[in-house]
Design brief:
The complex is a heterodimer of chains A (823) and B (166). Chain A is mainly alpha-helical and 823 residues long. In chain A, 70% of the residues lie in helices and 0% in strands. The longest helix of chain A has 22 residues, at 563-584. Chain B has four helices and seven strands; from the N terminus they run E-H-H-E-E-E-H-E-H-E-E. Chain B has helices at residues 12-22, 29-38, 88-104, 118-127, and strands spanning 2-6, 44-48, 53-61, 72-79, 108-114, 131-136, 146-152. In chain B, strand 4, helix 3 (88-104) and strand 5 (108-114) form a beta-alpha-beta unit. The chains are: A mainly alpha (823), B alpha+beta (166).
C-alpha cells in the first residue's frame, strides 16, 4: 500500500517509529520483528517493506534484503524513506555510487532532510565528486547556518575543488561562532582551546593556498595567542617568510625549529635554503659545509646532521666527514652504519673511498688496537663492527664468498650478536643459497626467542624457501594467545607482508589456487584501507582536524600505488592469466585439496605433491573449520579469469600508469581478451615510458600475429591498427634481431624468449629454449642478476626442457653464483 | 643517520608494518587513522636515508579519564631492531611528549607494559624516565597484568613565547 507513514493507523505508526529507533541502536532482530508486526496489519506497506529489507541486510540476508527493498520502492516510489533505506544498504555494501543515486531520489521527496543531505555529502566526498559535495553542503548550510560542522565541511569541500578563495570566505563569515568566547559553543566543549587552534591553523593554511602569503603571515601573527599547535605555527612562519623571500627572518625561524627537533632533515634543509646556498652546486659546497659544521657544534646529538655532510661533500672533505661519522658509529656499535652509507655508494668513488677507509681502520686496529687518532686502546667490539661493515661492503659488490668469510670472523668474535646472523643470512640470500639463508636466520632467531623482529625475518626466509607450514608454525608464536583462531587473526590484523610472501611461496610451489587466495587477502586489505576513510568525512570535521583530514584524503587517493598492492595485483593478474592459458590449452588447473591432518610433513613442511595443511595454530584443538575456501577454489573456478584479472588491470592503469611494468602486465590481459585497441594502448604507453623496453618488440610481434589470426576482427580496424604499429616500429620488427641488437643485456633475451613461447610453434619454442639456455653466458655480464637467472631457469622448466638441458644450464648459472642452491 | 618528523597519513601503512613486524599487540588501519584524525600532532616517525620508516610512536590523549587536564598516552612505540643505538626511541618520545604538553596541556604521560616484558620495562624505566604508577590486573586480553607507568612533563617543558616582531 502506498500509504505514507502518517496515513498508517496510529498503532502501526508508533511501531514504525520504534523500528527506526531500533535500527539506530543496532537491534536488528527486534527491528525485523517490529516490521513484521506492522505488515501483519498493513500488508505490503511500501515503507515498512523497505525498512524490513534494511534489517535483513544487517542480518546478512543480503539477497532477501534487496528484494524486499525493491518491492517497497515499487509500491511507494516517491517515498523518501524507502530510497534512503536503499541508499543505506548500498552504502553498507560499499557500493557508494549506487548509494548516492538512491540518496538523490530520497531528496526529491524530502529536500530539506538534514540527515539525507549530510550522508549524501559524505558519499560524494568518498566518490571524489567534490563539486557535488559543495552543492549539497551549501544546501545543508542554508538550513542550519550555525553549526560549525556544516560551515567547516563546506569550506573543506570548496578547498577540495580548488576554490581556496571560497573556502576562506565561508570560514571568515562563520568563524565568530567558534572564536567568540561568550558563545554557547565554548560552554559545552571541553576541547575548546584545541578546536579553536585547529580552526585557525586550517584557515591560515587556506590563506597560504590562495597565494597571498603576506595576508597569511599577518594573520599568523594575529592568531598566535590562541594557537596550541606551536610546532605547526612555527613551521608555517618559517615557510611563509621563505616564500616572501625574507631570508634572514626565515633562517631565524628555521633555527628555532631545529632547536626543537635537531633531527629534522626538513628543518635543516629549510635553514640551508635561507642562506641562498644550494647543496647541489659545487661552488656552494664549502659554504654549506661550514654552516653544517656550525650546526653540528650547536646540536652535537643530532643524528641527521652527522650524516648530511657526506651527501654533498667530496674529495678530502668527504674523507674527513666520513672518518668522523664512521669512528663515532663503530665505537658506539651502531649496526645500521653500512645501511646509511649504502645510499652514497651510487657514487662509485665514494663507495670505494669508504671501503678503503674502513679497511684502513681494520688493519690499524689489528696492528695497534687503536685508530690513528685514538688516545687509548679501542675495545675489541670496534674491530668486530669494522669487519661487519666490510662484509656488507663486499656483499654490495657481489663478492659473496669474501663477505661470508668476514662474517665468520665477526661471528667468531661475537657469537651472540643477532645482527650478525641477520646480515649473514641476507648475504646468503644474495648469493642464491635460499636454504642456507633460512638456516642462519633461524639460528639467529633461537638466540632471542622473545623478539618478534627476528621471528618475522625468519618466517619470511622460510617462505622464500617455500616452507609454508614451518613458516606458519613460527608465525603463530607471536599471534596473541587469546585469539580464537590464530590464522584468521593474521588476516584480521592485516598482516599483508605475510599474506604476500605466502602467496609467492604457493605460486612457486605451483599451487595457483592458494596463491590467488593470499594475493586477494592483500588486495582486500587495501580495499579496506581505502574504505576506512568513510567515517572520517564526518568525524574529522566535527573534531576540527581539517588539515589532517585533507592529508588522509590525499593519501587515500594514492593508496593503490603502494608497492605491496602493485605487487599483489600484478601477481594475481599473472595467476589468472595462467589459469586462463591452461584452460585454453585443455589442461585446466585443479585446486589442490586440503591434506589429511595426520599426513607426515617433509622437513620443510610440505608434502611432495604440494599439498599443504592449513593448521589451526599451535596448541589449538579446534580444526581449521573457519576457512571457507582453504585451497582458493573459489578463485580458480571464477566464471571468467580474464574478467577477474581485468578488474585489477584497470586499478593499476589508473594508479601506477607511469610504471612500465603496469603496461607489460596489462597487455597480457587485453590481448587475450582480443581488445586490440587497448593492447595497442599498452604498447604505446610502454613506449612513452621507456622507448627501448625489452618487452616492446615481442609485444608488437604478438599483437600483429594475433590480428593476422583473428578472422572475425573487422578488416578496416585491423588495417588501422597495423598502420599505427608500422609507423612506430617499422615494417617487420623481429624478436631475434632485437635480441641480437642487445646481446649484452639479458632482459632482452628473456623477454624475447617469453615472446617466442607465447607465439608458439616448434621452431619458435626451440629458439626460445636456445636463448634461455645461454642466459648465463659471459657476454651478459652484470645483467646476469640472480633474479634474471632464476627467471631463465623457470622459463626452461615451463618450455619443457629436458633434465640434461636443465642441468647444463644449472652448471653454467652456478659459475656466476657458486653458492647458489636454486639452480 | 635518521630523520625524525611528525607522522602523516602516508606513513600509516609503514607504521602498521613496523608494528606487526616487531610487536604482538597489533591494530587495524582504522585505529591508526583514528589517532591521526584526532591527535595529529602527537605521533612521530623515524626515517632512514632511503626514506624507509624504521621507528614510530603512536600517541594519544587518555580519554578514559574523568578529570582534566587529560594525560598523554603512548598507544605504541617501536623501533626496528637493526636501528638500535641511535637513540630513536628517546628522540621520538621527546617530540611526542612536548606536543602532548603544548597542544593538549598534558601534565604527564602514561603507558602500559606487560609485567613480564623485561626489555620494554627497562627501556621505559631507565632510558625514557618512566616510573610505575600502579599495576592493572588482567589488563591484557590474555589475562596478563600490566604496569601502568607514568612520567611527569611539567618539569621537562616550558610554554614557549614567540616574538611577533617579524
Amino acid at each position: 500500500m502506498s500509504l505514507t507513514i502518517t496515513e498508517l493507523p496510529h498503532k502501526e505508526q508508533a511501531l514504525f517509529r520504534t523500528a527506526l529507533k531500533l535500527y539506530e541502536v543496532k537491534q536488528f532482530k527486534k527491528g525485523l520483528k517490529t516490521c513484521d508486526q506492522i505488515l501483519k496489519k498493513v500488508a505490503n506497506h511500501g515503507e515498512t517493506l523497505a525498512v524490513k529489507g534494511m534489517f535483513l541486510a544487517h542480518l546478512d540476508r543480503k539477497k532477501e534484503a534487496y528484494e524486499m527493498i525493491k518491492r517497497g520502492i515499487d509500491i511507494s516510489p516517491a517515498s523518501s524513506i524507502s530510497w534512503h533505506v536503499y541508499g543505506i544498504v548500498c552504502r553498507f555494501d560499499e557500493n557508494y555510487a549506487e548509494a548516492a543515486k538512491c540518496y538523490e531520489e530520497a531528496l526529491k521527496a524530502d529536500s530539506e532532510n538534514a540527515t539525507i543531505l549530510r550522508e549524501l555529502a559524505q558519499l560524494y566526498t568518498q566518490l571524489r565528486q567534490y563539486q557535488k559535495a559543495v552543492e549539497i553542503r551549501t544546501r545543508i548550510l542554508k538550513i542550519n547556518p550555525d553549526t560549525p560542522q556544516y560551515w567547516l565541511g563546506l569550506a573543506v569541500a570548496h578547498q577540495l575543488t580548488g576554490r581556496n578563495d571560497l573556502a576562506l570566505k565561508v570560514i571568515s563569515t562563520h568563524e565568530h561562532i567558534v572564536l567568540d568566547e561568550s558563545s554557547p559553543f565554548k560552554a559545552n566543549n571541553s576541547n575548546y582551546r584545541c578546536d579553536v587552534s585547529e580552526l585557525l591553523m586550517y584557515k591560515n593554511w587556506v590563506m597560504e593556498l590562495t597565494g597571498d602569503y603576506q595576508m597569511a603571515l599577518d594573520n599568523l601573527k594575529e592568531i598566535r595567542p590562541r594557537i596550541t599547535d606551536i610546532t605547526a605555527w612555527k613551521e608555517q612562519k618559517a615557510k611563509l617568510l621563505l616564500k616572501l623571500d625574507r631570508k634572514e627572518a626565515a633562517a631565524s625561524a628555521y633555527q628555532e625549529l631545529i632547536e626543537r627537533n635537531p633531527d629534522s632533515n626538513t628543518y635543516i634543509c629549510g635553514y640551508l635554503s635561507c642562506n641562498g646556498l644550494d647543496i647541489g652546486r659545487a661552488e656552494d659546497r664549502d659554504a654549506v659545509l661550514e654552516i653544517v659544521r656550525g650546526l653540528q657544534q650547536q646540536f652535537p646529538t643530532s643524528s641527521a646532521l652527522k650524516f648530511l655532510p657526506l651527501t654533498f661533500c667530496d674529495g678530502d672533505d668527504f674523507v674527513k666527514e666520513a672518518d668522523k661519522l664512521a669512528k663515532y658509529a663503530l665505537r658506539k656499535g651502531i649496526p645500521s652504519l653500512f645501511t646509511s652509507m649504502k645510499t652514497l655508494y651510487e657514487d662509485k668513488t665514494k663507495g670505494e673511498t669508504l671501503g678503503r677507509l674502513v679497511e684502513g681502520y681494520a688493519s690499524q686496529l689489528r696492528d695497534t688496537k687503536r685508530f690513528d687518532d685514538s688516545s687509548e686502546d679501542e675495545p675489541s667490539s670496534v674491530s668486530t663492527w669494522c669487519t661487519f661493515y666490510l662484509a656488507q661492503h663486499a656483499d654490495y659488490y657481489g663478492n659473496h664468498e669474501r663477505a661470508l668469510q668476514l662474517m665468520e670472523t665477526a661471528i667468531g668474535a661475537s657469537p651472540d650478536t643477532v645482527d650478525l646472523y641477520m646480515v649473514k643470512a641476507r648475504i646468503l640470500k644474495h648469493a642464491g643459497d635460499v636454504c642456507g639463508a633460512r638456516d642462519v636466520m633461524d639460528f639467529g632467531r633461537q638466540k632471542d626467542l622473545n623478539d618478534r623482529f627476528i621471528n618475522t625475518k625468519t618466517v619470511k626466509y622460510m617462505l622464500h624457501n617455500n616452507e609454508v607450514d614451518e613458516a606458519e608454525k613460527n608465525m603463530v608464536l607471536f599471534v596473541r594467545d587469546d585469539a580464537s583462531h590464530k590464522i584468521q587473526e593474521i588476516v584480521e590484523t592485516q598482516t599483508i607482508w605475510y599474506m604476500r610472501e605466502r602467496g609467492h611461496a604457493f605460486r612457486r610451489l605451483g599451487d595457483i589456487g592458494r596463491a590467488l587466495k593470499h594475493f586477494h587477502q592483500v588486495l582486500d586489505s587495501f580495499r579496506t584501507f581505502h574504505n576506512d576513510q568513510y567515517d572520517f568525512h564526518t568525524y574529522s570535521i566535527r573534531k576540527f582536524t581539517a588539515r589532517a583530514y585533507v592529508d588522509i584524503l590525499e593519501w587515500e587517493d594514492r593508496v593503490f600505488e603502494h608497492p605491496m598492492y602493485v605487487d599483489s595485483a600484478v601477481s594475481a593478474i599473472e595467476c589468472y592469466v595462467e589459469l586462463y592459458d591452461r584452460k585454453a590449452a585443455g589442461a585446466p588447473f585443479e585446486p589442490i585439496a586440503v591434506d589429511e591432518p595426520k599426513k607426515p610433513l617433509t622437513r620443510n613442511g610440505t608434502s611432495k605433491s604440494g599439498q599443504h595443511n592449513l593448521s589451526a595454530g599451535v596448541g589449538e584443538t579446534k580444526p581449521a573449520a573457519v576457512d571457507a575456501d582453504p585451497n582458493g577454489a573459489a578463485f580458480v573456478n571464477a566464471p571468467s579469469h580474464l574478467e577477474s584479472a581485468l578488474a585489477f588491470v584497470e586499478v593499476l592503469e589508473k594508479s601506477v600508469g607511469l610504471q612500465a611494468g603496469t603496461h607489460v602486465t596489462a597487455f597480457e590481459v587485453h590481448l587475450r581478451m582480443k581488445k586490440y585497441f587497448l593492447a595497442l594502448k599498452s604498447i604505446n604507453q610502454l613506449r612513452a615510458i621507456e622507448a627501448d623496453h625489452p618487452a616492446l618488440v615481442p609485444m608488437v610481434v604478438r599483437i600483429s600475429a594475433a590480428l593476422d589470426a583473428d578472422a572475425s576482427f573487422a578488416a578496416p580496424m585491423k588495417a588501422a591498427l597495423k598502420a599505427q604499429l608500422v609507423k612506430a616500429f617499422g615494417e617487420v620488427p623481429s624478436i631475434a634481431a632485437t635480441v641480437a641488437d642487445h646481446d649484452t643485456l639479458l632482459p632482452f633475451a628473456l623477454a624475447g624468449a617469453r615472446g617466442l613461447v607465447s607465439l608458439g610453434g616448434k621452431e619458435r619454442v626451440a629458439q626460445a629454449k636456445q636463448m634461455a639456455m645461454q642466459a648465463a653466458a659471459e657476454r651478459f655480464g652484470d645483467s646476469r642478476t640472480l633474479e634474471n637467472l632464476v627467471a631463465a631457469r623457470d622459463l626452461l622448466a615451463r618450455i619443457g626442457a629436458s633434465e640434461s638441458e636443465r642441468l647444463a644450464f644449472a652448471a653454467e648459472a652456478r659459475k656466476v653464483f657458486p653458492l647458489a642452491t636454486c639452480f | 643517520m635518521i630523520t625524525i618528523r611528525q607522522a602523516k597519513a602516508g606513513d600509516e601503512i609503514a607504521m602498521q608494518n613496523c608494528n606487526l613486524t616487531n610487536l604482538p599487540e597489533n591494530y587495524h588501519m582504522k585505529y591508526y587513522l583514528y589517532h591521526l584524525a584526532t591527535w595529529p600532532e602527537l605521533s612521530f616517525v623515524a626515517e632512514n636515508e632511503q626514506g624507509r620508516l624504521v621507528g614510530y610512536v603512536l600517541a594519544k590523549m587518555n580519554e578514559d579519564m574523568t578529570t582534566t587536564p587529560l594525560d598523554g598516552h603512548v598507544t605504541s612505540l617501536s623501533v626496528m631492531r637493526s636501528y638500535r643505538r641511535l637513540g630513536i626511541a628517546e628522540r621520538l618520545m621527546n617530540q611526542a611528549q612536548r606536543a602532548m604538553f603544548e597542544v593538549f596541556d598534558a601534565k604527564c604521560v602514561s603507558l602500559h607494559v606487560r609485567i613480564s616484558n623485561i626489555a620494554a620495562f627497562a627501556l621505559y624505566k631507565k632510558t625514557l624516565g618512566f616510573d610505575i604508577d600502579h599495576t592493572e590486573a588482567k589488563y591484557y586480553a590474555d589475562g596478563e597484568d600490566a604496569y601502568s607507568m607514568k612520567k611527569d612533563l611539567t618539569s621537562l617543558y616550558k610554554l614557549e613565547m614567540d616574538s611577533l616582531d617579524f
